[in-house]
Amino acid sequence: MNIFVTGAAGYIGSHTCVELLNKGYSLIAADNFSNSSGESLERVKRITGKDIVFYQADIRDAAALDKIFSENEIGCVIHFAGLKAVGESVAKPIWYYEHNLSATLTLCKAMEKYGVTKIVFSSSATVYSAGNKMPLTENSATGQCSNPYGWTKFMGEQILDGAALVNHWSVALLRYFNVIGSHESGLLGDDPAGIPNNLMPYISQVAVGRREFLPLYGDDYPTPDGTCVRDYIHVCDLAAGHTAAVEYCAKNTGVEAFNLGTGKGTSNLELIRAFEEASGVKVPYRVQPRRAGDLPEVYTDASKSKTMLGWSAKKNVADMCADVWRWQKNNPTGYKA
Ligand SMILES: NC(=O)c1ccc[n+]([C@@H]2O[C@H](COP(=O)([O-])OP(=O)(O)OC[C@H]3O[C@@H](n4cnc5c(N)ncnc54)[C@H](O)[C@@H]3O)[C@@H](O)[C@H]2O)c1
Question: What is the distance in A from the centroid of ligand 1 to the CA of 36?
Fold first, then answer.
């Protein structure tokens, strides 16, 4: 089956391309390189020895999608393309709504026009409302998002829900928890532009000497060591979750949400210590005030994905740290060698 991957050159997209190619799928990929470059896809080809049909295109561009959908037989879409920085979404809400929602709407219109009925959507644990009891299940309350980015994911899910109902589509909404890790080859990894928003790329950039210290936001939360607890999932496990979702969509119609996480919480301090152990490098940190909107604990109940997708995460935090360090050490300035 041919799979159309939007945002394929990005962090999760590139790792998922490796997984899909290794499973024998043919890929049509698009990216506008707004947060990536062609280098990641060159490395995907190096790892797999397989080629990808690639379009440098913006998913908001209906004419570009017309070209892609008319030139290829597409069996399923995986939709990664979008803006993802929570803080930036608070500063530029209209840009985030416009960008993320119009990309999803333009894509849905192309799917309708060309009769493509299966889509796997990159959603996020940010769709869950604050105040839910942990662990989060797919039935936990949604729709009281604390930032525009989260709202764009919630609204993206609503758009797909509506489209699925009238068109009898198969939709898998994958709600990712905290994605870290890198491909074991050390060739692919997270390469955020500018100052990292997330803890792990910040830790690894401090370890490699690109930043002086790690700002640790809050050490007075009601958690065992006072720092925030999150559910970290290895990007290669996440990528495998996408092939499981593609297989699920091939056999089922309707809309189904799946939490992709390990089900285990790790505190910020535990993650720093695990990284130091894996790398042998000390990571200096300075405690800063809490960041607005950060919840003390977020982790999932991973049982629905196990039962319905036959998928569960295999790698632990030590594996994640070792793989991130291999990537960062081999690529101290990311893809910009
Ligand atoms: N990284 C995480 O921890 C995480 C967690 C939850 C959800 N997500 C979602 O997963 C998806 C992928 O995340 P990522 O970490 O790989 O991000 P990323 O920024 O590395 O990848 C996104 C890719 O999409 C491209 N892109 C953005 N807008 C585009 C457009 N209009 N047209 C074409 N290409 C476009 C970017 O250039 C980039 O290559 C995003 O939708 C993100 O919101 C990520």
Answer: 9
Question: Whose Cα sits closest to atom 11 in ligand 1?
Answer: 80
Q: pLDDT tens track of the chain, all 337 residues?
A: 999 999 999 999 999 999 999 999 999 999 999 999 999 999 999 999 999 999 999 999 999 999 999 999 999 999 999 999 888 999 999 999 999 999 999 999 999 999 999 999 999 999 999 999 999 999 999 989 989 999 999 999 999 999 999 999 999 999 999 999 999 999 999 999 889 989 999 999 999 999 999 999 999 999 999 999 999 999 999 999 999 999 999 999 999 999 999 999 999 999 999 999 999 999 999 999 999 888 999 999 999 999 999 999 999 999 999 999 999 999 999 998 7
Segments forming the whole domain that contains residue 104: 2-180+233-261
In a domain, 217, yes or no: no
Q: What is the chain's alpha carbon radius of gyration, rounded to the nearest angstrom?
A: 19
Residues framing ligand 1 (Cβ under 6 A): 6-7, 9-13, 30-36, 58-60, 80-82, 84, 103, 122, 124, 176, 178-179
7 Cα nearest atom in ligand 1: 24
Cβ–Cβ < 8 Å for 234, 274: no
324 Cα–ligand 1 center, Å: 19
Residue type, 164: A
In-domain check, residue 289 = no
- pTM, full prediction: 0.98
* CB contact at 8 A, 174 and 122: yes
Q: Which atom of ligand 1 is nearest to the CA of 58?
A: 32
Pairing of strands 53-56, 26-31: parallel
Quickly tell me which residue has 């930043």 as its tokens: 211
What CATH code is carried by the domain that includes residue 29?
A: 3.40.50.720
Distance from Cα 226 to the centre of ligand 1, integer Å: 31
- Of ligand 1's atoms, which has the minimum distance to the CA of residue 190? 20
Count how many domains the chain has.
1
Q: In whole angstroms, what is the distance from residue 228 CA to residue 223 CA?
A: 7
